[in-house]
Amino acid sequence: MEVAAAIRTRTAMPSCSSIYNPINFSKSISISRLSRSQSSSSRYFHLFSSSVSSFLNLHSNLNKQTNASKFIVRNSTASSISSSGNNESKISAKPSSELRKRKPNNKEIDDDKLIALRQLFSKPGIGIDAYIIPSQDAHQSEFIAECFSRRAYISGFTGSAGTAVVTRDKAALWTDGRYFLQAEKQLSPSWILMRAGNYGVPTTTEWLNDVLDPGCRVGIDPFLFSSNEAEEIKEEISKHNHELVPLYDINLVDQIWKESRPKPPMEPIRVHEIRYAGVHVSSKLLNLRSDLIEAGCSAIVVTMLDEIAWLLNLRGNDIPHSPVMYAYLIVEIDGAKLFVDNSKVTPDMLAHLKSSGVELRPYDSILSEIESLANQGRQLWMDTSRVNAAIVSTYRFGKNRASADIGYKGKVKAGGHDKSDGDAGRPAGLCKVSPITLAKAVKNYAELQGMRNSHLRDAAALTQFWSWLEKEIHKGVVLTEVEVSDKLLEFRAKQDGFLDTSFDTISGSGANGAIIHYKPEPESCDVVDAKKLFLLDSGGQYIDGTTDITRTVHFGEPTSRQKECFTRVLQGHIAVDQAVFPENTPGFVLDALARSALWKVGLDYRHGTGHGVGAALNVHEGPQSISFRFGNMTPLQKGMIVSNEPGYYEDHSFGIRIENLLVVKEINTPNHFGGIGYLGFENITFVPIQAKLVDLSLMSAAEVDWLNDYHSQVWKKVSPLVEGAASTWLWDNTQPLVKP
């Protein structure tokens, strides 16, 4: 499942491998907020890198200044797929609010939740004119516990990515191209849908500056925004004399959610066995402390849940689809403290942590510990693109107080060199990406073996599932998208080591397949139609690995257009799979390979081509990706895992996606230009690609050979794991194709 790198991309901040000076909020932190920490959720969602934003802003400015002609975009739904690719539909780009179907008088209709929220704006101690409600939790998680789904609760939009902004008389929601159709269906007339990335659509801060009178106050929950994000919001809205107001002691959505809000998760934490983890906690901590010493830091604050789980070889069950637990971690040169709810601690976990010198602290005591370290003048490493603004500001205030008490003029670390800071009393601290991020992304031998093994068991489950589904459809059995999804879960659950799905299964028949992150619901889903394309994107969490696979099939006779679209997607998939590239190549360099066959006929897709995948961890992880967003300069490295999932979608008609997972490996090339090595990919996903959807006349001989070789491997690796009807189905669907 492609998150569009997204899912998590943000407006790029200036490089900060130097010292951070966090946002100076006008209000000091109230320590009474400490008890609120587990109800912290969501973060500000930035949808595109600064390069893309700059491009759109440039066109917007040119249009305003020169009365330029309308921006022309290609309408993939209407355009011909002929080889010439010359036919295109010229449309005038309009703001999202104009595109939405509304009642004739176009009047905003306030729902009860918005009314209740706005009533809080004028309460004593609040006094705001707008409130920003992001998607993720206080740990910047993609998937979150239900009790933290504040944006979904207030707006009704359940997609994983988006930002809601509510003023005294307007409400708007921003999301990206993966969710446009879903948002159209789920938002009430009270909301304006902002199709982020479309021409003419403002960012959240641009919109606020436009709709608010100068001098207004914009509220946020500082636990739900990274320090960088809060800083950026403050800077942008200050251009119109607006003030950013962090509300430390209260989350306004929680106030109206009240008793109906789900309880926080309290699932026990388990130890991730060394046979799956591959490296002992003590060794990981030793490497991390070496990084701290080299950086001149006393400690590092870790808030990303998958980083904590990976570093300590722990797994949890607090969040659907992700085997992590809500916790914070501070690693010092001579010790470590894990901040977690004591009810989740098991005897095995306690003994495991004690052997590695890790102490336990209450989850909601993180701010007091940060303040204590600041008062001691400790130099902290914090990834301010991820650590929330409440934590960073606590450190700042504490450091300032300590400096004032002792008349301190500190030295700070910048670019690896000491230098005196001209602003006396400013806090010292290292602003840099967490070293755990890259260490986790490069899998060790045990992790790779676990991923390979879990993918074979997953392939067996999918083989059984597709055999069953095809038989049922041909018998004329009526099955809904949800029933199909549930049946797949049954097959997966029978496999050894299965724990959970790795995300909500995308089971989309016909037009629903065009909704990139479609989630079928029992009360509204469609029947799987044998005469339409069916897209199934699913994955599993196993004790030893994480899977993510997409297949698109047709149970009847596909049209020539569907076959051509599918074949061009397949050609892009093959091009990425076969890519060979020099070391230090960032993923965006490969993205064009996946799109080239589509581009030749003027088609494209609105998501990235590949995301990182965790080993028995999050199905989406960084820092690596394969995406058109060229702001991510992280090079692909041996041992990383990425998805390969090009697609094509025609709104209200059909969707196509083909996805496998790939391991980056060394390639033995006959030459080594520049004295460097070359890399390529190892495929670890083994499920047939439907042959009837392939137009062999478009395929080269080499591409047909790839498909035949792939199916040969599928049969060889998976056939020993299935029997009966599933084995017959696998045999039938792995037969070689002959190009006419």
From TrEMBL:
One of its GO terms (cellular component) is cytoplasm. GO terms for molecular function: metal ion binding; metalloaminopeptidase activity. Residues 79-92 have a biased composition (Low complexity). Residues 127-247 form the Creatinase N-terminal domain. Residues 677-737 form the Peptidase M24 C-terminal domain. Belongs to the peptidase M24B family. This is Metallopeptidase M24 family protein. The lineage of its organism: Eukaryota, Viridiplantae, Streptophyta, Embryophyta, Tracheophyta.
